[in-house]
């Protein structure tokens, strides 16, 4: 009797309790699925690692050969950086052009060295595929590093066309200093006050740039004033002799001294002469000329006036004295 009622009781329980029925169905489905044995999964993993290791060992000669090519390329580039400028001494006398040729040759050597190493490391990598990859990479790099690329080509233009070299004193948009080095992307300028300024080459390429030491000499002009009651012609002669006696004044160029105009309290005389082009030479020469002109005018009895002020009153002033 119990054997007959037990299945009937289970059937009624399934009908009355859907959750119990769903649980029983999940257990039945899990019993039907046969999971992979742990040992078989471990064997698959070990087999995969063995295959990767065998492929790595089989590819090791290619890796060693590619590394050898990279090291050889680095050695060639290192020697070229230190001795490359000497290779182009007969080509041009400009140091900037020799450095430019050496740097461009360095870039070409790195390009072909890395390309050859990649072809050894990946045998299916052909030059046509490399050029296609380089084309796509150049577009991406051009969009991402636009400023760097512009400064790079501006640096090439500066090294190729611009007349200044390392050691020249230049002035560009308020930056005055001596050029310490011209790199492909930046130019190092040491200001006259000692600070080092890193200037992007594109800035120098777009803006007017004055090369103050392009020649070995520069012209300087100052203004000296004499009183209105003094003889202007005599004053010009005295000043000219004083300037000619200065050691820093070049004697291969004429000294020009002309009355310049009427100042507030003096007749202004313009003094122009030539001296060295460096900032130090200009300061030294200016100081020597000013000292010599002042001394000569004093010895000649020619007055260098102070600013005069004349006061005019509409009505006469009455002077009163008080007796103490």
From TrEMBL:
Question: In which compartments does the protein localize?
Answer: Cell inner membrane; Cell membrane
Q: How does it sit in the membrane?
A: Multi-pass membrane protein
Specify the domain of life of the species encoding this protein: Bacteria
Alphabetical keyword list = Cell inner membrane, Cell membrane, Ion channel, Ion transport, Membrane, Transmembrane, Transmembrane helix, Transport
Q: Which InterPro entries match?
A: LSM_dom_sf, MS_channel_C, MscS_archaea/bacteria_type, MscS_beta-dom_sf, MscS_channel_2nd, MscS_channel_C_sf, MscS_channel_TM-2
Give an example GO cellular component term for this record: plasma membrane
- TM region positions: 62-80, 100-122
Domain spans labelled Mechanosensitive ion channel MscS: 147-207
Q: Its Gene Ontology molecular function terms?
A: mechanosensitive monoatomic ion channel activity
Q: Where is the Mechanosensitive ion channel MscS C-terminal domain?
A: 222-304
Main localisation, per the record? membrane
Record's subunit section: Homoheptamer.
Relate the protein's function as given in its record. Answer: Mechanosensitive channel that participates in the regulation of osmotic pressure changes within the cell, opening in response to stretch forces in the membrane lipid bilayer, without the need for other proteins. Contributes to normal resistance to hypoosmotic shock. Forms an ion channel of 1.0 nanosiemens conductance with a slight preference for anions.
Give the UniProt family note.
Belongs to the MscS (TC 1.A.23) family.
Name by which UniProt lists this protein:
Small-conductance mechanosensitive channel
Q: Which organism is it from?
A: Microbulbifer donghaiensis
């Amino acid at each position: 009797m119990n054997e007959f009622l037990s299945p009937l009781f289970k059937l009624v329980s399934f009908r009355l309790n859907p959750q119990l029925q769903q649980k029983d169905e999940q257990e039945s489905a899990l019993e039907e699925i046969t999971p992979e044995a742990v040992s078989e999964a471990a064997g698959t993993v070990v087999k995969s690692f063995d295959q990767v290791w065998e492929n790595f060992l089989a590819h090791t000669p290619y890796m060693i050969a590619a590394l050898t090519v990279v090291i050889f390329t680095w050695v060639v580039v290192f020697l070229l950086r230190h001795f490359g400028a000497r290779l182009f001494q007969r080509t041009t006398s400009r140091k900037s052009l020799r450095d430019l040729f050496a740097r461009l040759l360095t870039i070409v050597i790195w390009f072909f060295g890395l390309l050859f190493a990649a072809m050894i490391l990946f045998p299916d990598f052909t030059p046509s595929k490399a050029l296609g990859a380089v084309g796509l990479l150049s577009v991406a790099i051009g969009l991402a590093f636009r400023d760097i690329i512009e400064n790079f080509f501006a640096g090439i233009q500066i090294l190729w066309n611009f007349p200044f070299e390392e050691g020249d004193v230049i002035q560009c948009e308020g930056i005055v200093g001596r050029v310490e080095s011209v790199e492909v992307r930046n130019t190092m300028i040491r200001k006259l006050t000692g600070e080092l300024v890193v200037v992007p080459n594109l800035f120098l390429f777009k803006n007017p740039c004055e090369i103050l030491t392009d020649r070995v000499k520069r012209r300087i002009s100052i203004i000296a004033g004499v009183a209105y009651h003094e003889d202007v012609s005599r004053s010009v002669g005295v000043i000219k002799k004083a300037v000619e006696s200065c050691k820093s004044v070049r004697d291969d160029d004429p000294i020009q001294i002309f009355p310049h105009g009427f100042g507030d309290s003096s007749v202004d005389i313009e003094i122009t002469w030539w001296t060295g082009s460096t900032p130090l030479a200009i300061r030294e020469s200016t100081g020597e000329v000013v000292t010599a002109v002042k001394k000569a005018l004093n010895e000649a009895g020619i007055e260098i006036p102070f600013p005069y002020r004349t006061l005019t009153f509409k009505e006469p002033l009455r002077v009163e004295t008080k007796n103490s």
